[in-house]
Amino acid sequence: MSVIIPDSLKPNDGRFGSGPSKIRPEQVAALDAAALGPLGTSHRQTPVKQIVASIREGLTQFFNLPDGYEIALGNGGASAFWEVACACLIERRAAFGTYGSFSSKFAASAKNAPFLEDPAVFEGEPGTYRLPELTEGVDTYCWAHNETSTGVAAPIRRVPGSAEAGALTVIDGTSAAGALPIDISQTDAYYFSPQKAFGSDGGLWVAVLSPAAIERAAKVEASATADGARRWVPPFLSLTQALNNSRKDQTLNTPAVATLIMMENQIRWLNANGGLAWPTARCAESASILYSWAEKSEYAHPFVTDPAARSTAVVTIDLDDALPASQVLAELRANGIVDASGYRKLGRNQLRVGVFPSVDPADVEAFTKCVDYVAERL
């Protein structure tokens, strides 16, 4: 370590990861309290089922779900849900908006599914977003609310004319859910993992499902068992089975109980502070600190040039080539300030800062001061 940052400048908590994200001490305390209870016990027994029930009820309140919408949980993380959607939600053909690594991966899954027609892909450049457009023969429209790899947030509204055509809207909310505003009624499946705004570990997917999505899954899965059917829906990818188990407050396969405990604690914390409006305002405050700092800086600037497209969950900041981000990050890490690296596949000289609800805006302010301190000495 060549730069020693004064303690007076450092954040109280130096975790700024874009996922896995900061876990609050209270969540760890919840695990300690569960050591002689739910941890290490069957997920089909009352103590764990009560945790799942609390998660489902808490998210229903948090997202202010419309009548008929339901919460489903399953194993495998949001990347597994891409395959669930290909197996159970897309009937014949989907349209995708792609503008980064994760939105592109879902489109690739649909292209590789042998029982689906090639998707219509509307591609945007990294740092921008591109929404799919109404397309003949498309029954499912998909894009990401927040592209974690680039720090771009996209609007969530149904493609005009898609609902009238009976098409579903399927949104990846992995790094957005709990951090960005959302009108769930504009979606049919809003899915995410808990290792971002919900401050837990990965390996679990959660989906908010509309009545239309529930009906579509039942229809597609029934057709997959018909004589001569080409589609294969294994139990692990069955959305109907996942929903039926969720209604019993359990998952199809054994979950990581610690993940459930931490997520349940985070949901109660968010709801106790005012529900969705509170974390979205808190994240917006943290993001504003970073964007304002970068706009005033002599060596840094926001990667996303359009302010309307800038994420308030994951903030990406480009550095001048004369100041290698790798050196800045190394010095920050040596001082206990961690996980602010840009997305590796994007390949930019960049900082990427997760400003999820658990991150204190005051720590974000301290982060900017620490970067300035390091930059002046490199």
TrEMBL record:
Its cofactor is pyridoxal 5'-phosphate. Pyridoxal 5'-phosphate binds at residues 78-79, 102, 148, 172, 195, 253-254. It catalyses: O-phospho-L-serine + 2-oxoglutarate = 3-phosphooxypyruvate + L-glutamate; 4-(phosphooxy)-L-threonine + 2-oxoglutarate = (R)-3-hydroxy-2-oxo-4-phosphooxybutanoate + L-glutamate. Residues 40-342 form the Aminotransferase class V domain. Keywords: Amino-acid biosynthesis, Aminotransferase, Cytoplasm, Pyridoxal phosphate, Pyridoxine biosynthesis, Serine biosynthesis, Transferase. Binds 1 pyridoxal phosphate per subunit. One of its GO terms (cellular component) is cytoplasm. Pfam families: Aminotran_5. InterPro entries: Aminotrans_V_dom, Pser_aminoTfrase, Pser_aminoTfrase_mycobac, PyrdxlP-dep_Trfase, PyrdxlP-dep_Trfase_major, PyrdxlP-dep_Trfase_small. GO terms for biological process: glycine biosynthetic process, by transamination of glyoxylate; L-serine biosynthetic process; pyridoxine biosynthetic process. It is found in: Cytoplasm. GO terms for molecular function: alanine-glyoxylate transaminase activity; L-serine-pyruvate transaminase activity; O-phospho-L-serine:2-oxoglutarate aminotransferase activity; pyridoxal phosphate binding. Its EC number is 2.6.1.52. Pathway: Cofactor biosynthesis; pyridoxine 5'-phosphate biosynthesis; pyridoxine 5'-phosphate from D-erythrose 4-phosphate: step 3/5; Amino-acid biosynthesis; L-serine biosynthesis; L-serine from 3-phospho-D-glycerate: step 2/3. L-glutamate binds at residue 44. The keyword Amino-acid biosynthesis applies. The modification N6-(pyridoxal phosphate)lysine is found at residue 196. The keyword Cytoplasm applies. It is an enzyme of class 2 (transferase). Residues 1-21 are annotated as: Disordered. Homodimer. Belongs to the class-V pyridoxal-phosphate-dependent aminotransferase family. SerC subfamily. Catalyzes the reversible conversion of 3-phosphohydroxypyruvate to phosphoserine and of 3-hydroxy-2-oxo-4-phosphonooxybutanoate to phosphohydroxythreonine. This is Phosphoserine aminotransferase.
